[in-house]
Structures are given as structure tokens and as C-alpha cells.
Design brief:
This protein is of the alpha+beta class and about 130 residues long. It contains three helices and ten strands.
Length: about 130
């Protein structure tokens, strides 16, 4: 039994050390617990996914209600980061890369489950 566990433990250790560390701002965020539960419709819900993919290629995503953005650049600034975004109001426009507008967002950590985004405090939503 021990012989079977050793290779699995080695593979698991290599896989976990090789995986990139998640940034403090990745995940689902909202202003209130109620908005965390309501994933559809208007609200403050925000999803930041650096691992997003489109057509097999990396496509980091910053998504809010009627604000679907391709994350183009992450610039550290002290403990905060500035995200450079190309945003679209509609998913059709996002998919076709038309009618986009350049925007930015500044994010700063406020602990493990809180974040300041453009001056407003957000909480991390649990899945």
C-alpha cells in the first residue's frame, strides 16, 4: 500500500508547486452577501478570472453586469494593482471585438476576503 501512495504523493507535490499562485483579486466579488447570492441581473457582482480562455487561447476576464472586459494588462502599484481593460456592454460585441472601450480598475487587498475596487469595498463571494 505504501508503495502505491509514494508516487501519487510525489505527483501531487510537483503539481501543486508548479501551479501558478492565484492573485489576491481573482474570484467572485460583490458589495453585499445578498448580491453574492444573486448571480443574475444588475448589481455589484464582479468576476475576475485570469485563467479565462477563448478558442483555446488565454483570455483573462473582468466581468460585471453589462460590462464584459478583456483584461489586457496588470500593473502593480504598491500593494494595489491597476487593470487595463477593453470593455463591451454586450456579449455579442465582446465575442466580435466591436464597440469596445478602454477602461481601467484599481484593486487593493483589504484582507483575504475583502477588496477595494475603485474606491468601493467588495467582499469575496463563496461558490
Amino acid at each position: 500500500m505504501f508503495r502505491r501512495l509514494v508516487p501519487a504523493a510525489i505527483i501531487l507535490a510537483l503539481w501543486t508547486t508548479a501551479a501558478p499562485a492565484a492573485e489576491f483579486f481573482e474570484g467572485a466579488w460583490a458589495r453585499t452577501p445578498k448580491e453574492c447570492r444573486n448571480r443574475e441581473g444588475p448589481g455589484s457582482g464582479t468576476l475576475i478570472n485570469l485563467g479565462g480562455r477563448e478558442n483555446g487561447r488565454p483570455a483573462p476576464l473582468f466581468d460585471q453586469y453589462e460590462r464584459h472586459c478583456r483584461l489586457q494588462k496588470v500593473e502593480p502599484s504598491g500593494k494595489a494593482v491597476k487593470l487595463s481593460l477593453l470593455c463591451f456592454e454586450f456579449w455579442d460585441d465582446y465575442r466580435r471585438s466591436r464597440n469596445g472601450r478602454r477602461e481601467s480598475a484599481t484593486l487593493a487587498p483589504l484582507g483575504r476576503s475583502r477588496l477595494r475596487m475603485d474606491g468601493k469595498t467588495y467582499i469575496r463571494c463563496r461558490n
